Amino acid sequence: MYIPAVLAIIAAGINLTRRVWVVNAAALGLQYLAVFVLLLTVRPVSLAVVKLLVGWMVTLTLFLSLITDGKIRGAKAFFSFSAGEIFRLLAGLFAVLFMTVLLPELQAEVFPRSSLPLLLAAFSLLVLGLFQASLIAEPFYVIIGLLTFLSGVELLYASLELSTLLEALFAGVNLGLALVGTFFVIKDAEIPEA
Amino acid sequence: MSTPLIWIIFPLAFALLLIITRKKPMLSGILASAFSLLLALAALLFPRDLSFLLPDQRLEIASSLELFGRSLEITGERLTMVGLLYGIVFLWNLGSLLYRPSLWFNILSISITALWVATLSVNPFLYAAVLIELIALLSVPLLSPRGVRTEQGVLRYLVFQTVALPLILLTGWMLSGIGSAPSANPLIVRSAMLVLLGFALWIGAFPFHSWIPMISEKSHPWVVSLLLALTQSALSVFLLHFLDQYAWLRNLPVTFSGLRWIGVIMIAIAGLLSAVQINLGKNFGYLVLYETGYSLLAIGLAQTGGLNYLAMLFFPRVLSYAIISLALSALWQNKGAHALDYKFQEGLFKSRPLVSAGILIGFFSLLGLPLLPIFPHKQMLWLLTAQTNPRLLVWVLVGSLGLLMSTARLMRLFAREQTAGAAVQPVREKTGFIVLMLIILLLMAVMGTSTQFLSPRFLEILAPFTQLVPIP
To answer: For position B127, what pLDDT does the model report?
Structure first.
C-alpha cells in the first residue's frame, strides 16, 4: 500500500511546487485516484468510489473553469524551477521526511488501528495542503491546498470510524470548495487588470 | 412534523425557492424578512413541551429528525436560541431592502441561519464541524461578490475554518468512550488542546483573529455584521455544549482560567488596535473581536454566574452591531470600501448627522456606557472579574480605554470642518434608513433604561446546560 501513498504525496508535492495550471489539475486528479486506492483498505468499494467520483468532479469543475477563462497555460519549461518553487519543494520534502520519522511512534500511541501507509499519506496531505494554502496568495492554489488538506482529513477519519452522514457532508464540502474555486477564478478574470 | 423540519429543512427549501425571485430585490427582501420573522416568533412563542392542546386532542411536535443514522434535535429549551438567530436574520433582511449588498443576500442569509441551527442541533454535535465549513463556503459569495477582486481576508477565513475542522472531528473520535476520566490523563489534555484550538480558529480568537478585520475592511458592512453576529452568537453557545457535555473539559483546572485570560487579552488588544485604525470597516472588525473577548470572559466566569450575562448580552450586542453597520452601509452605498476611510469622514456631524450618531451610539453601547443596553450586563461582568482575579480587570480597563480613545478620535473627526473649504451640504437620508435607525435606537433606549425588558428572556438559552449553570 506504499505505492498509492507515495503517489498521493508526489501529486500533492507537484501542486505545492509547480505553477502550471494544467499540470496542477492533472496532479489533483491523480491525488484523488491514489486516495481512492488507499480508501479501499478501510472502506467498501461502493463508498470509496464516491470519493473518487467527487474528487474527479471537483478536478473537472476547476479545470473547466480555467478552460472557460482561457487561462490554461501549457506545460512549458516544466523542469526549470524558480527560487520560490525550490523553497516550497524543500519545505514539502522536509515535512514529509519529518512525518516519516514521527509516524511509527504516533501510530503506536494514538492510531493503533490505522495502517502506516495510510497514516503517512493522510498526514503528508494534511501538511502539504496546509503549506499550499498558507504559502500562496492566488485563490486557485489556495483552493487546491484546501482540497488536499481535506483529502488528508477524510483519509485519516476513514481509518478511524464510518459515518454515512459525515461522508455525505464531506462530499458536499469538497464540491462546495470546487464551486468557490471556480467562482474565484471566473470573477477575478472578469475584472480588467489595473 | 418535527422541530428540525420547521427550523432547518423548511428554511433551506424556502431559500431554494427564493432563487426564483433573486432578480426582484424588493420582493425577495420582503419574502425573506416575513419568513424569518415568522420563524423567530414561532420559536419564541412555541410551547416549551412542544405540545398543543386542541379541543379534542393533544398535538405533539417531535423534537428530533433522523438523518443517515444521526439525528437533528431541537428541544423546547433550545428554541430561544433558534428565535434569536432567526431574529437576527430578520433584522438584516429588513435592512437589505435599503442596502442590497448582493443578489444572493436573502437566499444565503436564510440558508446560513438554517445551517447554524443545524450546527447547534446535530447529534453527535461534533459533526457540526463540517456544517460550519459549509457555512464558511456559503458566506464566500456574500463576502467577495462579483466585480470585486478576491481579497486575502476571505481566503484566510476559508483556510482557518477548514483547519479547525479536523481538530474538532479528531477530538470527537479520541473521546468516544471517555465520559469522565481523571483530568490528568494525557489523552484528555491533548483533546482539550485540540478543542480549544479549533474554537480559537473558528471564532477568530487571538492570535487567529487577522481575518476578521481584513474582511470587515473590504466587504460590505451589512454582510460582515450579519455573518459575524451569527457566528459569534452561535459559536458561544456551541462552546457551552462542549463544556456542558464533557466533564473532563470542565474539570481541567486551566479551562476556565484559560478562557478568562484569552478573553481579557482579546479585549485589551482589540480595544487598543481600535484606537489606531484609519478605516471604519476595519474598526468594526476590532469591535467584534472586543465583544468576542467579552463572550470568552463570560464563559470563563461560568462558575461564578458569568453565563447569565453572556446570554443577556446577545441581543443588545446585536442591536449595537446593527446600528453601526446600518450607518456604515449608508456611507458605503454607491462608493465602496474606500468610503469608510477616516479621511472622508471629516464634518460628518454636519453632512450626515444621523449616520454619525448611529456610529457613535453603537461605539458607546459596546463600550458599556450607562443608559445604553449593554451597560448593566458588562457592569456585572466587571464585578465578577474583579471578584475572581483583580489582575484581569487591568486588561479589561486597557481595552476599554482603547475603545474610548477610538470613539473620541471619531467624534473629533466628525466634528472637524472639511479641509476643502466648501460649505457642507447635508445629505438627505432615505426614509427607510431613518425608520430602521429609529426602531433600533428605540429598542436600545428601552432596553437601556429598563433592564427587565426582553433581556431576562434570553436566560432561557442557558436552560439546556444543566451542568454549567449554577442551580439557585
So the answer is: 83
